[in-house]
Specification:
This protein is of the alpha/beta class and 386 residues long. It has helices at 8-22, 25-34, 40-48, 67-79, 85-101, 104-116, 231-267, 279-307, 311-339, 353-363, 368-379, and strands spanning 121-124, 140-144, 147-158, 165-173, 180-188, 194-199, 209-219. The chain has 3 domains: 8-120, Acyl-CoA dehydrogenase/oxidase, N-terminal domain (Butyryl-Coa Dehydrogenase, subunit A, domain 1, Orthogonal Bundle), CATH 1.10.540.10; 123-227, Butyryl-CoA Dehydrogenase, subunit A, domain 2; 231-379, Butyryl-CoA Dehydrogenase, subunit A, domain 3. 47% of the residues are buried. Bound molecules: flavin-adenine dinucleotide. Its cofactor is FAD.
Length: 386
């Protein structure tokens, strides 16, 4: 895409994803979440139709398109009320990192499954004592012959219970200096010494979060992704896609909330006209719509820059898009609840369920404050406080 107008192919893709997602929708999503089940049917169908791997190379079973197309898939699924977090993790972060930096064997082993959804790969960087400061992570890999032995702890790891493998961001010791440097490892979820416990969240989601423990997990040498010296570049390769997908999810959720509210206020009547005629309701909804459209434009810019290979430009736009979409979707969900009055808080109307979920876009994958730090320092050249 070189202009603001999507190609016919991209428009077709939007329609196809929206049509598939509409067959599931929010009722299905919440039903599964409340029953403690996963949305396996939706995941499998999205994989079969080529949506999950749309950004991955064709030679490994992907669609050969880019982050633009993957973000569009995410947005449309979220707009139907069924945003899947594992879309951010499996094809966007992990698929991208392996496709760009993996060895031929790693690509052959993991990418076709990630692309068709038969393999889900979780992603683990966050640690209890490091949080937003990922320079402080302490999960460490040491050599034992040609094997690696990995030990540490991770927190808030989405969907590891559904995953066949998890990409762990750890550290290794530099032979020469003794300093620790980042390194990425693919760990099969049935590896000995890997375990997890569920974190009870007040989030109605079919995908759960886990505390993960690595207790001397022995891995073969080819568990290390690409080269030991390229981990920082590898990590950065996954960050822009993650933020673009975070933005896409929030844009979709904002659209979902606005649609629900608009449908409701068009017909609900308690005075002479439908309540949607009152500017106390119509103006905030119009404002929400503008804010979501603006966030979407930045998301599209970020994806277009990323796909064109401009990583620095994409980083600024992806951070801004994630911020803008998070803020806009929180406000859209809040206004949707208000527009529905008492029904805004019922189970039946399904909008209250989005209140906590909408806050996620302010916290993960990178918090609102850390985006503001990035923009203050990188775009504005201001000094750091931390
Ligand atoms: C539902 C969910 C799913 C997740 N999935 C994954 C996953 O799959 N894999 C994974 O690795 N992680 C995952 N995360 C973790 C997520 O990325 C972190 O929660 C997030 O990065 C924030 O880290 P933290 O929770 O440790 O907060 P902290 O770093 O403790 O931050 C707490 C608050 O302090 C603020 N703060 C911190 N430092 C600064 C500063 N320098 N300036 C200003 N403010 C600051 C933050 O913005 C935030 O508001 C998930 C989280 C959630 C909630």
């Amino acid at each position: 895409m070189s202009s603001f107008i999507e190609t016919e192919e991209q428009q077709e893709l939007r329609k196809a994803v929206a049509a598939m997602a509409a067959n599931y929708g929010q009722d299905y999503y919440l039903e599964k979440a409340r029953a403690g089940q996963h949305t396996t049917e939706l995941w499998q169908e999205a994989g079969k139709l080529g949506f999950i791997g749309v950004n991955l190379p064709t030679e490994y079973g992907g669609g050969g398109a880019g982050m633009y197309e993957l973000s569009l898939v995410m947005e449309e699924m979220a707009a139907a009320g069924s945003a899947l977090l594992m879309m951010v993790v499996s094809p966007a972060i992990n698929g991208t990192i392996i496709a760009k930096f993996g060895t031929d064997d790693q690509k052959k082993r993991w990418l076709p499954g990630i692309a068709d959804g038969s393999i889900t790969m979780a992603f683990a960087i966050t640690e209890p004592d490091a949080g937003s400061n990922s320079h402080r992570i302490t999960t460490t890999a040491r050599r034992d012959g040609s094997d690696w032995i990995l030990s540490g702890q991770k927190v808030f790891i989405s969907g590891i219970d559904q995953a066949q493998a998890v990409l762990i961001v750890g550290r290794t010791e530099d032979h020469k200096t003794g300093n620790l440097k980042p390194a990425l490892f693919i760990v099969p979820t049935d590896a000995k010494g890997l375990s997890w416990t569920k974190i009870e969240m007040e989030l109605i989601s079919p995908e759960s979060q886990f505390q993960v423990f690595l207790d001397d997990v022995r891995l073969p040498s080819d568990a290390l992704v690409g080269s030991e010296d390229a981990a920082i570049a590898q990590l950065f390769a996954g960050l822009n896609p993650e933020r673009i997908m975070g933005a896409a999810s929030a844009v979709g959720m904002g659209r979902f909330a606005i649609t629900k509210a608009v449908d409701y206020v068009k017909t609900r009547q308690v005075w002479k006209t439908p309540i949607g005629a009152h500017q106390g309701l119509s103006h905030p909804l119009a404002q929400n719509h503008i804010e979501i459209e603006l966030a979407k434009l930045m998301m599209q810019k970020a994806a277009a820059l990323y796909d064109s290979g401009d990583d620095a430009g994409a980083a600024e736009a992806a951070n801004m898009a994630k911020y803008a979409a998070g803020e806009a979707s929180v406000r859209a969900v809040d206004q949707a609840v208000q527009s529905l009055g008492g029904n805004g808080l019922t189970k039946e109307y399904g909008i209250a369920a989005a209140v906590t979920a909408s806050k996620l876009a302010r916290i993960a994958p990178v918090s609102r404050e850390m985006v503001l730090n990035f923009v203050a320092q990188t775009s504005l050249g201001l000094p750091r406080s931390y």
